[in-house]
Write a structure and sequence with these properties.
187 residues; mainly alpha; Double Clp-N motif; 4 strands
Length: 187
């Protein structure tokens, strides 16, 4: 199965670069991608957070308080702003969530599921501090149909992680090339 980023995710990743620059960081981290998602707003990830009782504005303020630097990155330095390994790993996790749900397009909902499984970012600490975990988030997303198997597949028929590792690595190489060309996220 060939996977790719949705237009929604490409927009979020473009915003992530802007958020890194706004907060004074030359590294586009996990929190910057979350800030990009919150800036986009019209996506299922933000709707899922709201359904869990998490106000996107409050989350943005809390992340900003943790990641804001002394001054923004100058516009002429934008080519020097690059994703961190943690952000790349998170996008890999979103790819896994996409394949796990037998889909071929990475959506913001896949990103949010990968995020809540990750470690070490202010966003995850804040979300977990408010009682959000993978199982609760996944159940809510299934209930609201933010994620669901394609063509009515049952979850038990979905591929196991071991079966996805080879195709996932191949697809991630392809995805990184595509995203670099479309958003200049990875340069």
């Amino acid at each position: 199965m060939k996977i790719k980023f949705s237009q929604e995710m490409l927009t979020i990743l473009s915003y992530a670069r802007d958020e890194a620059m706004r907060t004074g960081s030359y590294g586009i981290g996990v929190d910057h991608v979350v800030l990009g998602m919150l800036r986009h707003r019209d996506n299922n990830a933000c709707r899922a957070l709201a359904a869990c009782g998490i106000d996107p504005d409050v989350l943005k303020e809390a992340i900003d308080a943790r990641v804001f630097g002394e001054r923004a990155v100058p516009w002429q330095d934008q080519a020097l702003v690059r994703p961190t390994r943690a952000a790349a790993a998170l996008l890999s996790g979103a790819g896994y969530e996409t394949l796990r749900h037998a889909q071929s397009i990475i959506l913001s909902s896949h990103f949010l599921l990968a995020l809540i499984r990750s470690e070490g970012s202010a966003a995850v600490e804040i979300l977990r501090g408010r009682g959000l975990d993978y199982d609760r988030l996944y159940a809510l997303m299934r209930e609201h149909r933010f994620v669901m198997p394609q063509s009515g597949q049952q979850e038990s028929l979905l591929p196991r992680m071991e079966d996805l590792l080879g195709p996932l690595g191949e697809q991630l190489t392809h995805l990184y090339g595509d995203i670099q060309a479309k958003t200049n996220f990875i340069s």
